[in-house]
Design a protein that fits this description.
Elements: H1 2-61, H2 63-68, H3 70-89, H4 91-124, H5 129-141
Length: 142
């Protein structure tokens, strides 16, 4: 009976050791990766900010290039929104990167506004017949 009792204790001890090692290693790896992702997300938000600042002045001066790049900007925004959705679905990761994700969301919202402005300025408004007629009436009064 003593032999079985000792064997049970050794197997339980081995199980406990492995469980503890696995948990600690997994938790440490997750936290390391989450911190790396946190830094990458912040860096990406800075890149979006820089792009948005350039686009703000660029789109006011470059109609053809703005229209040419519109699909690329929409694709970029779509990818960014998918990234945000994926992070939010991962509750553990989201809880760690919440503030960086908030900064990133501000930048993606700004990009969305720029895309909307390009469409409005160069597509929607010029094609609006009533608006053109009203603008012509205003011009003729001055």
């Amino acid at each position: 009976m003593q032999v079985i009792d000792e064997k049970i204790n050794r197997v339980k001890e081995s199980t406990d050791d492995l469980m503890q090692e696995t948990f600690e290693e997994t938790a440490n790896n997750f936290l390391d990766q989450a911190n790396d992702f946190k830094g990458s997300l912040y860096s990406l938000a800075e890149k979006f900010n820089s792009l948005n600042e350039d686009l703000f002045s660029y789109t006011n001066q470059e109609k053809e290039d703005s229209l040419k790049n519109l699909d690329k900007l929409k694709s970029l925004l779509s990818n960014a929104n998918e990234l945000i959705a994926r992070v939010k679905r991962n509750r553990a990761l989201y809880s760690i990167v919440k503030s960086e994700l908030r900064v990133f969301r501000v930048e993606t919202s700004q990009l969305n506004e720029i895309i909307h402005d390009i469409k409005l300025k160069y597509i929607d408004l010029p094609n609006d017949k009533k608006l053109r007629e009203a603008a012509n009436k205003l011009k003729s009064q001055f």
